[in-house]
């Protein structure tokens, strides 16, 4: 949509449980003008990621919450429209946490230039961006898969999970993906070359998972939590590693979970099997960015890593599109295309 | 007790919940004669350790269970009485898993010579043995305490916990010990130099613990599980490390634990605080034995590590003494003195 208005989507209320339309508010205002040292960015692609749910909450977390009335947080790919910053020029493609809005001002902090020759620029918030680097660092640094080991990943057709599984295959592991529904399963074993896929919506999910890992599980890359985790942990092998990356099944839950309390059994497994559980976020491994970009862009070029995008059009659709993540409705990296080709220059 | 009879304590039944007298059986037989390549060991000191409870059960664990009718497993310090093994001579002091019996035959496997000049030989199953090395390896390899950090250890006056706390102090950390009762607490802050002690028997234990760690917890060395763990984990700091060494509060529990299910909250903490939980046993770090012996014997000589032994007399008292571990009644490293001085040579 061509516009000389800056539309911004604000956090209107802290959601209880699943976010609702009324938790967001779309406001319009003038396109801002960059001051000294600033640049103006036109948002091209908006990334929708599970972590944003926790920023809507004021529960203690690794990052400060979005305040009520602030622009919703989010990574985006944009084009520099005007720049008073020596490091950026009009026309540059950039990636940064510029939020749910048509235009963003930036002083360059946290912004990086995207090389459009590597891959389509939308990948800068996908397979070559935060989700891809999350997969790369968490799997290789914490999971450390070895040839012949069994790696299981949940949310396996998503932006992170699909990269986890493919890198694990490249490292010689046997890979089992957990995803919802037959279509995603077929994609995992067909297009992405996973060794097996298990549908977590099946009523006998736990049995199917057990059958799919006859040698147990050496690495479990956790994106989901909840019932999936409860089915996974009894299958972990001695010395298994569990990078804890996300818990999307739990993000909207309210209050305490019904018993029995499974904690004592988990601790017993941690001890008797000498398990490692480790939570992380991609920022913990910022020093691996160059290695990540080199390796994963190479694997994309070689056809060893494939990716799939699930694209909604129009900034105004960001809230309802975001909710698809929590219903498992997205299929691949979830994006909002904010401008269509040719319409991304503001009228003067 | 001088004897030419070999008394052995066998596992008579698999305990349900807390072990009972009838789960053990004392039998008498002749002192065995070493065959080719074998040696005969007179047990001097028998070590009683929490891990033995899991060997009495046939639940899956890192080690095979003791079979019904077999001698109870256990580390011991003994004197070589006769040897047909080139590596050992009569008079040598040795340490190994020779079990709950007056005399043991060995082919030398898993046996190590003890240097009596380092410290009293009973320490070979204590501060300079398996418990001390468990503390050293788990704390330094997994816990990695840094100067100024807060380290909390449970079962803090025990064989492992007391060494954990003292090494953490040597490494410059602030150390808080959890133990049962005022007497143990006074020992921790007095004799051992801990910065604070918290009594887990106090009805307001969780509040006291919180007050004792104003800067949160960076390393929690887990020996206990159960209610202590539930009070600890909400206090863990970002990037905290949790070496999971033991769960003595849970070893005798039967069946599922009452709800609510705390697992989802724990996983949320693991993620949002990027915690590391890692189970281990001392055998995982066997390559650190020389470093352990060098460092800890040096710290004992310098007076920087102290230890306390809780000694029962007589092999026949091993079963009832063992139970004191689960009631928190031991105060220091729990040992059975199997022979008294001068009575440790068999009549010919």
From TrEMBL, chains A, B:
<dbReference type="Pfam" id="PF16884">
    <property type="entry name" value="ADH_N_2"/>
</dbReference>
<dbReference type="InterPro" id="IPR020843">
    <property type="entry name" value="ER"/>
</dbReference>
<dbReference type="InterPro" id="IPR036291">
    <property type="entry name" value="NAD(P)-bd_dom_sf"/>
</dbReference>
<dbReference type="Pfam" id="PF00107">
    <property type="entry name" value="ADH_zinc_N"/>
</dbReference>
<feature type="domain" description="Enoyl reductase (ER)">
    <location>
        <begin position="17"/>
        <end position="336"/>
    </location>
</feature>
<keyword id="KW-0560">Oxidoreductase</keyword>
<dbReference type="InterPro" id="IPR011032">
    <property type="entry name" value="GroES-like_sf"/>
</dbReference>
<dbReference type="InterPro" id="IPR013149">
    <property type="entry name" value="ADH-like_C"/>
</dbReference>
<dbReference type="GO" id="GO:0016628">
    <property type="term" value="F:oxidoreductase activity, acting on the CH-CH group of donors, NAD or NADP as acceptor"/>
</dbReference>
<dbReference type="InterPro" id="IPR045010">
    <property type="entry name" value="MDR_fam"/>
</dbReference>
<protein>
    <submittedName>
        <fullName>NADP-dependent oxidoreductase</fullName>
    </submittedName>
</protein>
<dbReference type="InterPro" id="IPR041694">
    <property type="entry name" value="ADH_N_2"/>
</dbReference>
């Amino acid at each position: 949509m061509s516009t000389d208005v800056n539309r911004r989507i604000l956090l209107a209320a802290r959601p209880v449980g699943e976010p609702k339309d009324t938790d967001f508010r779309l406001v319009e205002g003038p396109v801002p003008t960059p001051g000294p040292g600033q640049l103006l960015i036109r948002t091209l692609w908006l990334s929708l990621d599970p972590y944003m749910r926790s920023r809507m909450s004021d529960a203690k977390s690794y990052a400060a919450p979005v305040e009520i009335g602030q622009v919703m947080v989010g990574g985006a790919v944009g084009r520099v429209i005007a720049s008073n910053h020596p490091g950026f020029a009009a026309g540059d493609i950039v990636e940064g946490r510029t939020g749910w809005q048509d235009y963003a001002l930036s002083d360059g902090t946290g912004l990086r230039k995207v090389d459009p020759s590597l891959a389509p620029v939308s990948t800068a918030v996908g397979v070559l961006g935060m989700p891809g680097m999350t997969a790369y660092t968490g799997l290789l640094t914490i999971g450390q898969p070895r040839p012949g080991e069994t790696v299981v990943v949940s949310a396996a057709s998503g932006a992170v999970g699909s990269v986890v599984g493919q890198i694990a295959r490249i490292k010689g592991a046997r890979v089992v993906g957990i995803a919802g529904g037959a279509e995603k399963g077929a994609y995992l074993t067909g297009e992405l070359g996973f060794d097996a896929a298990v549908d977590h919506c099946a009523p006998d999910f736990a049995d199917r998972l057990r059958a799919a890992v006859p040698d147990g599980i050496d690495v479990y890359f956790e994106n989901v939590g909840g019932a999936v985790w409860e089915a996974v942990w009894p299958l972990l092998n001695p010395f298994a590693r569990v990078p804890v990356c996300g818990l999307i099944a739990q993000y909207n839950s309210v209050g305490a979970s019904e018993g029995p309390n499974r904690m004592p059994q988990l601790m017993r497994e941690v001890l008797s099997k000498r398990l490692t559980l480790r939570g992380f976020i991609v920022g913990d491994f910022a020093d691996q960015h160059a290695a990540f970009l080199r390796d994963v862009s190479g694997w994309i070029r070689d056809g060893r890593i494939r990716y799939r995008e699930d694209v909604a059009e129009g900034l105004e659709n960001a809230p309802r599109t975001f909710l698809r993540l929590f219903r498992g409705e997205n299929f691949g990296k979830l994006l909002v295309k904010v401008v269509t080709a040719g319409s991304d220059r503001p009228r003067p």
